[in-house]
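Lecture notes, unit on binding sites. The following record was shown on slide 14. It pairs a sequence with inosinic acid.
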Amino acid sequence: MRRALISVLADGLFRLVQSDIERVLFDGPSIHKRLDEMAAQITIDYSDRELTVIAILTGTLMFMSDLLRRIPLRLKLNCLSVVSYHGKMQTSGEVFFKELSVPGVAGQDVLILDDILDTGHTLEAVRKKLETAGPRSIRACVLLSKRKQRARNVHVDYIGFEIDDEFVVGYGLDFMERYRNLPYVGVLKKELLEQPNQ
Ligand code: IMP
Ligand code: MG
């Protein structure tokens, strides 16, 4: 009885969050299906090497845990926290690292994981920072890539899905730290993006 009540309540609450979403782009099963393919490719590409994954927090949380559980290789995992957005949705172009030291990746085969490639500032800054530590190789992997003219011309080796230049949330991606817990990727309603203070 109590469990039924909780489930009805949870359903209602989820619908409340869902009402902020204009449309769903990729539901859970389609994301997982694509992750199976990406993981298989990464596994083949790194089958003879030890992989060092550097995940950029916080947006990669779900992507990282679902993708890495599909890769049956010996690998190391490290996370980096960066801030590239001032407040809302405009990119500042400047990328701030929360950690002061560069991860020790000398001689290692590094795979950078990020949630979404937008302007390219974040991936470029992270790649440059890691290069100073002298890795053997660096590749990049993103769940989503926006089709657009980028400020930075970064090369990404593994892309989950290409999307239009719209603001998306869910499956780890946020707007003002919200919506990360949605189990799918969706487009946020435009009017929510335009509200000055939330
Ligand atoms: P870039 O530096 O402009 O490529 O932006 C990369 C970062 O901006 C991502 O790691 C996200 O945290 C954030 N970002 C860019 N576009 C979106 C979006 O549509 N939704 C949520 N976060 C985004
Ligand atoms: Mg973010």
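Take-home: The longest helix spans residues 28-45.
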